[in-house]
Amino acid sequence: MAFKEKMINGTIVNSYVTCKKKAWLQARSISANKNNTYLQAGKIYAEIRKDVSKRVGNIEIDEIEKGKYFLIKEYKKTFSNFKASKTQLLFYMYNLQKELKLKKIKGVLVSEETNEKKYLSMDKKNKKDIELFDNKFYLMKEEYLKTISIK
Quick one: residue 58, left, alpha or beta (phi over 0 = left, psi -120 to 50 = alpha)? Predict the structure, then answer.
């Protein structure tokens, strides 16, 4: 099964932070346990927000607001894995800046349970972190290609 570079999305980014093996499987379209209650809850939340979500290439963004800057909103059931959620949102922001040439962009993570909000900006540190993360994905693809090469 081939690595689908164009299909790198927020779910795979989130999984990579938590479990590289899970991300590896998802990048090859090997499905997760469909009976997982967290996956089911995520699908319900996505269905509720489907009228406001936006697809940009392989990224599906929960919500975008335009004002003085573009505000990218990502909804999570909880912040139990904040690092993965933050990386996912930064991945969205980074790719939107890169692909759509957006200059003014910010992000917000919203907890579905508590309605707590955590704001992010693409400052120098976050940009450096997400560029390093992007390079890890490139290396994951290269590693996979080596495993299937015929000698």
Answer: alpha
Report the interhelical angle of 82-100 vs 10-18 (nearest 10°). 140
pLDDT, tens only, 107-137:
999 998 899 999 999 999 999 999 888 777 7
Cα distance between residue 42 and residue 47, in whole Å: 9
89-94 own/partner pairs: CB under 8 Å, 24+ apart: 89/120, 90/120, 90/122, 90/126, 90/129, 90/130, 90/133, 91/10, 91/13, 91/59, 91/130, 91/133, 91/134, 92/10, 92/59, 92/61, 93/120, 93/122, 93/130, 94/122, 94/127, 94/130, 94/131, 94/134
The H or E element that residue 99 is part of is helix 82-100
Tens-digit pLDDT profile for residues 39-89:
666 666 666 666 667 777 778 888 999 999 999 999 998 899 999 999 999
CA-based nearest residue to 91, from 53, 59, 123, 138: 59
Please name which of 148, 144, 101 lies closest in space to residue 8, comparing C-alpha atoms. Answer: 144
